Prior knowledge:
By secondary structure, the chain is an all-alpha fold.
Amino acid sequence: xxxxxxxRLSYSxxxxxxxxxxxFTLLHLTGDPAALxxxxxxxxxxxxQIRHSYGLDQPLPVQYVQFLGQIVRGNFGYSYRQSLPVLExxxxxxxxxxxxxxxxxxxxxxxxxxxxxxxxxxxxSPVDTTAMLASLFGLSIxxxxxxxMLIIVFGVLLGWLxxxxxxxxxxxIMPAVVLGGFEAxxxxxxxxTGLLEVLAQDYVRTARAKGLAQRLVLIKHALRNxxxxxxxxxxxxxxxxxxxxxxxxxxxxxxxxxxxxxxxVLARDFPVVLGTxxxxxxxxxxxxxxxxxxxxxxxxxxxxxxxxx
Length: 309
């Protein structure tokens, strides 16, 4: 099991390094941040002073090594625009992102798992068809369109919910539904597929032959063995929602990391962009690693296989 943990951890670190390298390179190919900071009337001397003060006059390999060293020390630098530490800016926005992601995860699980179980337990029936059409509908709708429709209906026409901003539960409902809708649709289809595969196994037919009720067969025998792919979708979906709900946060003016990252990209505030990407990638990889580790708890066969390898 220890070898399995170390192998998965090394994969995560390599992926993290790859993300840092790609984002750093692409950001520095978009233009000169010194020109944006100085404005249109800046002289060459002012531009040179800005580049020197932020280390932008150094060769890219030197900037890259310095950047990696800062990341290792937990130093993300200062925002070009706001002159505040990047970690301080992200710290003020990560709370709303976590709140939104957790709420969207609740929506995902409460809708996706029951819908998939109901469809799988009633294969070929009108209930199954209706559930799968609903999931297809959820997968097909762009999140920005769904968000705008909810704003128009529930915010403007009915006036039941606020259309934007950060506050209580009423501010959270529409963003959580939009963010969790796609994941719920995907989860329902995967839950149905996994459940149908398990229900076709010999041990499930044996349990039914013994006279066990359908509900006990589903809960005690089928769901646990169909939980691995479901757990994967839930874990990765949660990582995606934490790592950057950019569209949803922008539509609803939600003050999270995704919206902060968009504003930083538009302003070419490189340290903030890099900070949000690094934190988002780290969160996603950590969640993915925890999902991998939980496999052994759900399925002892994986735990044994990991120990043997």
